[in-house]
Amino acid sequence: MTTENTGGDVRLTGISKTYGTFTAVHPLDLSVPAGSFFALLGASGCGKTTTLRMIAGLEEPTTGTVEIAGKDVTALPPYKRPANTVFQNYALFPHLDIYENVAFGLRRRRIKSVKKQVEEMLELVELGPMARRKPHQLSGGQQQRVAVARALINHPQVLLLDEPLGALDLKLRRQMQLELKRIQTEVGITFVHVTHDQEEAMTMADTVAVMNAGRVEQLGAPADLYENPNTTFVANFLGTSNLIETEVAEATGDDLLLKAGDAKLRLPAQRCSTAARTGGRILAGVRPEKVSLAHADEEGSLPEGRNRITGRIADASFVGHSTQYVVHSPAAGELSVYEQNIERDARLVPGADVVLHWNPAHTFGLDATQDIEAGTDIEEGS
Ligand code: ATP
After folding, report:
1. Which of 1, 12, 115, 238 has its CA 20 to 30 A from that of 344?
2. Mean pLDDT estimate for the chain
3. What is the pLDDT of residues 118-154, one digit of tens each?
4. Are residues 271 and 188 part of one domain?
């Protein structure tokens, strides 16, 4: 089923928010294409909810403008904007049944014949058989779907979702992520989704804006952000990165040759941010799943041309599909390696001397003047 409305684009120009002397959102330009699923991702307090609330009209910007579907809505109250918000606590009416909760927006506009639209919406969120139940007779995920149906029945061009899955347990969250994505594809309107959960943002969104301390630190498609982080914050906040402090030994040709202790690493020049290239030091990054682990005995038989670092296994955690190792390396400090459990070498246990090796093409280079730990100490839900 599809609804007849289509999405509107959202354009923020120079939008900012200060509270007294505190700047919650620094002047921000952001363009969300019509019909896309856009996620604002960041840790608690980074300004993502404030940004969403400025789009909704629930917060007045200190500077800047908000346009939705080509129209400047900065001065309009929330109910006059072609946008609806779904909140984390769902805000359903407890005394009304599901049908009436969904019908609410139509009844308020004094629309008499609501049956067809309500039934369509209940079908969209797959809650038809539950129409006569009260909210407390539904699970958290089902209540969430009612909240989405209740917002969508108003035919907004943009649906704003503020941590809508925050109250659900992990398994249900994962199910609802797929469900919300399906609904968005079906109705085709623009979704702007706020979350602190990087997996959630990557699973659902076409484009993710990673926010840090009131600024968008990087924006892009999930795989692009993951593979090509521009800053240590993005590298650490989106998944896990090994960041190795290195000195540039040679910078001619297509590759940079880097030195970390006694290890020599190659980094494709094109995978190195411009800022990083100007200094003599670079943070060389590689994702844990890109690294392979071999027992020190096998060093001689490893293929030529791989980046290599030696170390000793400090910890090994078996997690079913993979084993996650922590390796101490004199040249690079503590490194993480995720090895798929295909053929496990029984010698790879804590205390074993090992060689970490990877394809140099999987190395990225970051500006070494940044905090190497940025984004690592943020707990989910903090
Ligand atoms: P969370 O996930 O915890 O909601 P967030 O990234 O959505 O975090 P915001 O709610 O946008 O963060 O808040 C950004 C910053 O602005 C926070 O430091 C917060 O304390 C501050 N802030 C928000 N509202 C106000 C207010 N009314 N007065 C003063 N400071 C505020």
Report:
1. 238
2. 91
3. 999 898 888 889 999 999 999 888 898 899 899 889 8
4. no
Does residue 45's CB lie within 6 angstroms of at least one atom of ligand 1? yes
**d(CA 382, ligand 1 centre) in Å:** 13
Same domain for 246 and 213: no
Separation between Cα atoms, residue 4 and residue 23, nearest integer Å:
40
- Judged against a pLDDT cut of 80, whether residue 18 lies above it is answered with yes
Going by C-alpha positions, the residue among 138, 190, 191, 189 that lies closest to residue 168 is 138
Q: Of all protein residues, whose CA lies closest to atom 29 belonging to ligand 1?
A: 19
Question: Do 54 and 182 sit in the same domain of this protein?
Answer: yes
Would you state the pLDDT for residue 4?
46
206 and 113 together in one domain: yes
Task: Identify the pLDDT of residue 319.
Answer: 93
Number of neighbouring beta carbons within 10 Å of residue 169: 10
Q: Is the CB–ligand 1 distance for residue 46 below 6 Å?
A: yes
- Determine what percent of the chain is predicted with pLDDT higher than 70: 96
Q: Are 59 and 177 in a shared domain?
A: yes
Predicted pLDDT at 108: 86
The ligand 1 atom at the shortest distance from the C-alpha of residue 53 is 11
CB of 381 sitting under 6 A from ligand 1: no
Ligand 1, atom 16, residue with closest C-alpha: 24
CATH code: domain of residue 287:
2.40.50.100
Q: Count structural domains, the chain.
A: 2
Atom of ligand 1 minimally distant from the CA of 47: 11
